[in-house]
Design goal:
alpha/beta; L-arginine/glycine Amidinotransferase, Chain A; three-stranded mixed β-sheet; 23% strand
Length: 304
């Protein structure tokens, strides 16, 4: 395992999945399906199960929790409400949408404490009544090796909370504006950026300020990584929403089949120098505005 690519993850199996009406206003990646809620949920569950099976086959440890509730449509995206960090640290985050706050579940934290070395859990969720949100590794793309938190400004990433997180966990914040083709702020940083051990995927054209764009690119490349610039169209197809993990045969880049299909051969070749690619079929889950990365909460903790 590298600092950036854990061997274990947590995933939440959805039973009442649907495109969340409370997040539709600022998540331009959401879309609708001409199906009943029951049909959508069933398809999402099947996609989830196939994804978990493929990841386990690659040698990744997947801790699966079932969400049997009916009022948590986005529960399949647990990376937004908690994160884990080397040294035994866990963070729990405040969420922007009211119905997403119900996704937090302490049995997940209990499993982490039981199976991994956890020193402390810092819970920021009590700041929700003050209107503050910092949606975990959706709002922040973390470079665990270089200790940098990349953050696109949005209502999901409060600057006061970001500063507090970076102070507590020892990260340097690199904050920038990013907008989609219509000029709307990108709602989560992890749809436009994914950091691997030897490469980084980055939707640099979505950063309108040229100087800031150059700064972000240089900071990503600083430790010797190859920066793979993604186009706006590739970002719209979730090419940035990928996560590097460690499987039986080394590093694996987990992304959706849709994301892989829009990558150019030269981009795939760069990734393949240090990681194999593991595409997951997620057409239903992606209608909620997130893809493979959003479904996966990496476990950056030492096993007991």
């Amino acid at each position: 395992m590298t600092l950036q690519a854990p061997t274990s993850v947590v995933m939440i199996r959805p039973h009442a999945f649907r495109s969340n009406p409370q997040t539709r206003a600022d998540n331009a990646f959401q879309s609708a399906l001409p199906l009943t809620d029951g049909e959508i949920a069933q398809r999402a569950r099947a996609e989830f199960d196939t994804a978990v099976a493929k990841m386990r086959q690659a040698g990744i440890t997947v801790h699966v929790f079932d969400d049997t509730g009916t009022d948590t449509p986005d529960s399949v995206f647990p990376n937004n409400w908690f994160s884990t960090h080397a040294g035994g640290h866990v963070a729990v985050y405040p969420m922007f949408a009211e119905n997403r706050r119900r996704e937090r579940r302490w049995d997940v934290i209990d499993l982490l404490k039981r199976d991994y070395r956890v020193q402390d859990v810092i819970d920021y969720s009590g700041l929700e009544p003050d209107g503050l949100a910092l949606e975990g590794t959706g709002a922040m793309v973390l470079d665990h090796a270089e200790r940098v938190a990349y953050v696109a400004r949005s209502n999901r990433a409060d600057p006061v909370l970001l500063e507090r997180f970076c102070t507590h966990f020892g990260f340097e914040p690199v904050v920038f504006d990013a907008v989609d083709a219509t000029g709307l702020p990108v709602y989560h940083t992890n749809v436009l950026m994914g950091i691997g051990t030897a490469y980084a995927l980055a939707g640099l054209p979505l950063i309108p300020d040229a100087a800031r764009r150059a700064t972000v690119a240089a900071r990503l490349a600083e430790p010797g990584r190859t920066v793979i610039e993604l186009t706006g169209d590739q970002i719209a197809n979730f090419a940035g929403n990928a996560i590097e993990l460690t499987g039986t045969d080394g590093q694996v880049l987990v992304l959706s089949a849709r994301a892989l299909a829009c990558l150019r051969p030269d981009q795939v070749e760069i990734i393949s120098r240090s990681a194999s690619l593991l595409p997951l079929d997620l057409p239903t889950i992606e209608t909620a505005g997130g893809s493979a990365r959003c479904m996966i909460a990496g476990v950056h903790l030492a096993r007991r």
